[in-house]
Amino acid sequence: MAERYGSVELDNKGSVARDHLALERTFLAWLRTSLSFASIGIAVTQLFRLNTSLSTPANPSDVHLRHVGKPLGATFIGVSIVILLIGFHRYFESQHYVIRGKFPASRGSVVVVSMIAAALIVTSLVVILAVAPKAIER
């Protein structure tokens, strides 16, 4: 298993270089997706904090809103790490198979990331609608 993560040197015959560069571009897309989720997590945390600091502290829903923002933002950052690890694993797994002349279809990782993203979107919508219905009306 450790040999999959080591350095490799291949003869550039046929489409070898193109295939490996495509794998690197795909990994960079995973990295970009991971950074997007991390940015959303930071933005959510700051937005919930900014939203509560601008209003009067006597409003109990604002205090509750601030307590929900941190876990939601931390969840986005945690998912960002998971997506980066999936991309890392996928890159080396694909490289391992391409060297042997095969290519595994990426159904599992696509399904996992899609389900995680859908769950986060639905959770964010529920949190926003349930925690601060008065803040939305303002």
Automatic annotation (TrEMBL):
The record's subcellular locations are: Cell membrane
Among PANTHER family, the record links this protein to: DUF202 DOMAIN-CONTAINING PROTEIN (PTHR34187:SF2), FGR18P (PTHR34187)
Q: Which spans are transmembrane here?
A: 27-48, 68-88, 109-132
Q: Give the organism, scientific name.
A: Phyllosticta capitalensis
Ranges where the DUF202 domain occurs: 18-96
- Protein name in the entry: DUF202 domain-containing protein
Is Secreted one of the keywords UniProt gives this record?
no
For this UniProt record, give its keywords in alphabetical order, as a comma-separated list: Cell membrane, Membrane, Transmembrane, Transmembrane helix
